[in-house]
Amino acid sequence: MRSLWTMGMAAILAIPLAFTAPSASAAVPPDISLTAVKAHLTQFQSIATANGGNRAHGRPGYLASANYVRNLLNGAGFTTTLQSFTYNGATGYNVIADWPGGDPNDILMVGAHLDSVAAGPGINDNGTGSAAILETALEVSRQSLAPTKHLRFAWWGAEELGLRGSQYYVNNLPASERAKIKGYYNFDMVGSPNPGYFVYDGDNSDGVGSGPGPAGSAQLEATLQAYFTSIGVATRGTDFDGRSDYGPFIAVGIPAGGTFTGAEGIKSSAQATLWGGTAGQAFDPCYHRACDTITNVSDTALNRNSDAIAYAVWTTATAVAPTVVWQDTFETATGWTTNPSATDTATSGLWERGDPEATTSSGAKQLGTTVSGSNDLVTGRLAGAAAGDYDVDGGTTSVRSPAVTLPSTGTLRLAFSWYLAHGSNASNADFLRVKVVGSTTTTQVFQQLGAASNRNGAWGTANVDVSAFAGQSVRILIEAGDASGASLVEAGVDDVKLTRQ
Q1: What are the residues facing 414 on neighbouring strands?
Q2: Cα atoms in the 13 Å half-sphere on the side-chain side of 115
Q3: Alpha carbon of residue 44 to chain centroid
Q4: What is the rounded distance in angstroms from the CA atom of residue 452 to the CA atom of residue 24?
Q5: Share of the chain above pLDDT 70, in %
Q6: Which sign, positive or negative, has the C-alpha torsion 54, 292, 260, 41?
Q7: Coil/strand/helix, residue 482
Q8: Of 190, 375, 437, 452, which residue is 20 to 30 A from 260 by alpha carbon distance?
Q9: For helices 34-50 and 299-317, what crossing angle results, to 10°?
Q10: Is 421:366 a contact under the CB 8 Å cutoff?
């Protein structure tokens, strides 16, 4: 992983919503052998030791690492390509491996960078990610996995010099081939010795940094979160800050996700309480140093992340496309009702369907752009002379969908795009909430609270399991509230969809 790593306190302390992973076919994700993954790390260490102590771009240790990976994949039945490129006058290589079968127009890619820095062998950074996805690929072969998606693995060169290998790959794909890649999982540093458990924030639930990933990133995030939830390990979000090989993919609109156990950033006391380890020390004290050797790895973190990778691959690659039960993009009126219970108290900024006007106050607040089309649901679509002229004031505003009859079987999911923006005069009494109103019960399925800090508007996505309402006639209730006096609060919702798996 390249350059300096930082994380805002909001991302560290925010508690993400508990999303449920998409359902999959009957293929059961395997338990990846830690012994096998570490055997690959031992090989990477031996290669570095025999080649000047590193596996860096343009050095013999890198090409030996690429050949080691490629030879194993060739023997396992993958179709491999050693893609060459030139950077800084030296030849670099990407190893691309395709597993036969699956829909060629629906590709899931899994990648990790294979190069080290020149200073050391790069065993945690990023032998761990490379070894974990290699053993996952070999397990695909052992189990003769028959995914519904076409499965492609990649080991990138020259990441440490600025994502050169992955950028070359994406740049040289025709637009028609890029469009076939429906998701990209990236695994960079998954065995840090003082580990954290970070998952890329595809849905922007943390509300910091660069915003959400391309549409579909939330589902990749949710799948990884579901695995860690299943083993009782809490995760926290990490921003798409452009430091690893997901960067070229999200730049062209390809959904991305992945895990990360920390680099040179310092573990806080709160993180040490959450995950164990040592507060006040780096997640990886040997980051980009000669001591990043085979001893610089947490077996526990590596084992957990290797199994998370396999879970993500099996779950995502074998999933059957869901059936749309109902959806609304708000381009036409479909019967949403404002203030349906006649209990709203807001005096301005009431929910309405329309073409929103942008407002700015210490950054974007009401977004003038929608997720699709020209209309969305927005709290007071006009801008006014000042940013606070049509924001939510005085309490709560609500809007409710028409009735939708859900199927009685299958996994049912509610997905939507959203944002909540507010000024630094807000508090956690301000909110955006989504509820499902059934025949007998009402359940809150989403909540984003305000805070006493500036939060700019940025579209995020949510995807929640609503199978508890199977067979019922339901309505979707959306609420926004300003309960902090004069706080500036804006909210929007777009592209609401109910699906059945």
Answers
A1: 464, 498
A2: 28
A3: 28
A4: 40
A5: 95
A6: positive
A7: coil
A8: 452
A9: 110
A10: yes
Paired tokens of 339: 């203030």
Residue-wise DSSP of 139-166 = HHHHTT---SEEEEEEEESSGGGTSHHH
**Among 79, 34, 83, 90, CA closest to 57:** 90
Average pLDDT over residues 71-86: 98
Please name the residue that has the structure tokens 């430091």: 243
Q: Is the pLDDT of residue 212 over 90?
A: no
Phi and psi dihedrals of 138, rounded to 5?
-65, -35
- Amino acid at position 298, single letter: S
**φ, ψ for residue 97, nearest 5 deg:** -130, 120
Query: Other CB atoms closer than 10 Å to residue 177's CB: what's the count?
Result: 12
Render pLDDT for 12-32 as a digit per residue (tens, 0 to 9).
Answer: 223 233 333 333 344 799 999
Read off φ and ψ for residue 74, nearest 5 degrees: -60, -40
> What is the DSSP annotation of 298-367?
-HHHHHHHHHHHHHHHHHHHTPPPPEEEEEE-SSS----EESTTS----SB--EEEE-PPP-BSSSB-S-
Of 234, 245, 147, nearest to 187 by C-alpha is 245
- Number of residues assigned to the chain: 501
Q: What are the pLDDT digits (tens) for 439-488?
A: 999 999 999 999 999 999 999 989 999 999 999 999 999 999 998 777 89
DSSP of 355-402 = -PPP-BSSSB-S-S--SSSS-EEEES----SSTTSSS-BSSEEEEEPP
Give the Cα separation of 74 and 78 in Å (integer).
5
Q: Which residues of 387-398 are buried (b: 16+ CB within 10 A; e: fewer)?
A: bbebbbbeebbb
Q: What is the pLDDT of residue 322?
A: 82
Residue 24 near residue 224 (C-beta atoms within 8 A): no
Beta strand segments in 423-488, E: 431-437, 442-449, 460-465, 473-481
- Whether residue 357 lies in the annotated active site: no
Q: Tokens representing 36?
A: 């096998």
- Please tell me what DSSP assigns to residue 200: E
Burial category of 146 from C-beta neighbours within 10 Å (exposed 0-12, middle 13-18, buried 19 and up): middle
Residue written as token pair 């800090």 = 453
- Return the H-helix or E-strand segment holding 494: strand 489-500
pLDDT band for position 204 (cuts 50, 70, 90) = confident
Residue 417 in tokens: 């795009």
User: Which pLDDT tens digit goes with each residue over 372-422?
Assistant: 999 999 999 999 999 999 999 999 999 999 999 999 999 999 999 999 999
Report the distance separating Cα 423 and Cα 232, nearest Å. 35
Strands 198-200 and 337-338: unpaired
pTM reported for the whole predicted model: 0.70
